[in-house]
User: What shape does this take?
Amino acid sequence: MEQGKPFSYGKIFVIGSGFFALTLVWTFYNAYMPLILGDYIESRAIRGAIMGLDNLLAVLLIPIIGAWSDKIDTRIGNRLPFIVIGMPVAAVFFILIPYGAAVTLWVLLVVDIVFLLAMTIYRAPVIALMPDHTPTENRSTANGIINLMGGIGAIIALFGLSLLYGVDRAYPFIVAGLLLMLAFLLLYFTVDRNPPYVGKSEDDLEETQAAKSFFKGLSKLKKPEFRGHLFILVAIFLYFIGYSGVEAQFTVYAVEYLGMEDSAAGFTLGFFSLAFVLFAIPAGLLGSKMGKAPIMLIGLVLLPLIFISIPSLPLLSSFAPGINQVLLLQIVLFVGGVAWAMINVQAYPLVADLGGKSRIGFFTGLYYLFSMASSIVAPGFLGLLMDLFSHPSLFYGAAASFLLAFYYLRKGSNIIRKNKVPVDTEGNVRV
Assistant: This one.
C-alpha cells in the first residue's frame, strides 16, 4: 500500500452495495425475461436473440463510458456523475417492465431498451470504484467482497424474488427497483469524491476520449506485444458465452423440458448463486495466494464437467425413482457455483492489473466489452442449439465454451510470463 494513502474494507462493502443492486437486477432479468418474452414468442433462438440485441447497447457504450470516467472531472468526482444519471432511471424502468409486457411486445421492448441504456451508463463506473479505493495487492480480496455482495443480490433475486413472481409478476420488479434506488442513495452519500487510488493518464490517451479514440486504443491489442493480453480477453469472451447462455436459458430448460413451475425454476438456479456467495471470499484469497490465472484454470476444467452431467440427471432419476430430480439438480448447480467463483472472482482484477493505474477505466471497458459481447451471441446461439438438437444441448454448448476458454487463458498467461511484460511500482502490467 502506498504510504499515507487510506484503505478501508468497510468502504469496499459500501461500494459493493452498488454491485449488489446491479447483480440482483441482472440476475432476475436474465432468469425471467426469456419467460416473459415467451408470452409472445415461441422460438428459444428468437427469444435469445432479443436478449442478445439488448446487450448490444451495453457492448457499445460500457467501454466508452469506462474510459470517459477516467478523464471527466466534476465537483462530485469522475465516477459519480454516471451513477447519478444511470441508477435512478434504471430503477424506474425496471419497475415498468411487467406493465409494458401487459400491453404489447413493442411497448415491452421500448421499456426494456431504456432500462438497458440506463444500466450501461452506470455499470463500468460503479465497478471501477473498487480499484479507485483499493491498492493493487488487496484487489483480489476486495473483489471477493464485491462478488460476495453481488452474490447476495443474486440469491435474493432467485430465492426471494422468484417466490414473489409466483404471487404476482409485478411484485419482484417493484422490490428490485426500490432496492436499486436505495443502493444509489447509499453510494452517493458515502463514496469518496476524490478516491486515493484513482489514476489520471499523464498524456492525452486517445482511447479515453470518445468512441472513435477508444477503438483506436482497442487496436493496440493487435500488436505482437499485446498478444497475451488479447488471448486472456478472448478467454473471458468464450467462457461468458457458456455462462450467459445458461443464465438466460436455464429457466426455459427447467420449465419446458423438466416441467417445473416458473418460480421453482428460478429458485433452483439460486443454488448456483448461493455457492458463489459462500465461496467468493475464499476464492479471492486463493487468487491472492496462488495467482489469479491458476485458480481460474482449475475452475475452467471443473465447470464444464458439471454442465455435461446435468442432462443425465433425468435419466438417473428414471432408473432410481427414489431420487428427487429437483434436489439432485440443485446439488449439482451448487457445486457448479463453487467452480464459477474460482473463475469469476479472479477475472476482473486480472484484467485491471493488465492496464495499470492510469488505465483502470479503459481496461474495465475492455473487460465488459469482451464479457458483454458474449451476451449478444450466447442466448441466441445456445437457444438455436436447443431448437435444433433439443433442450440438453444448452449444457453441451456451454461446456465447450469453457474448455476453449481454458486453452486461451493458459496460452495468454504463458505468453505474458515468457515475454516478462514490464510492471510498474504497484505490480500492474505497464501498457
